[in-house]
């Protein structure tokens, strides 16, 4: 399975990494991407799906606390 070289270039671009830890690129549609260093995955904070999932998760937590 090979990825689009443009997506890989986005993921390697330093301007898309905030503080070297947080990845945010609206042009990369994937909500999860491989970490830059080490093992595992990180969240793409530029993806609208990530924001939607975060809002839903926060709403579930707030609902669980108050009800």
Description:
The protein is α+β, with helices and mostly antiparallel strands. 40% of the residues lie in helices and 15% in strands. The protein has helices at residues 5-12, 48-66, and strands spanning 17-18, 22-23, 32-34, 41-43. A two-stranded antiparallel ribbon has the order 1-2. It has a two-stranded antiparallel sheet with strand order 3-4. A hairpin with a 6-residue loop joins strand 3 (32-34) and strand 4. The termini are far apart. The relative contact order is 0.14. The model has no long low-confidence stretch (mean pLDDT 91).
Helix content: 40-55%
**Overall number of strands:** 4
Order of helices and strands: HEEEEH
Structural class: alpha+beta
What are the salient characteristics of this protein?
67 residues, two-stranded antiparallel ribbon, alpha+beta, 40% helix
Structure at a glance:
This protein is α+β, with helices and mostly antiparallel strands.
Please give the structural blueprint.
Layout: H1 5-12, E1 17-18, E2 22-23, E3 32-34, E4 41-43, H2 48-66
Antiparallel strand pairs: 1-2, 3-4
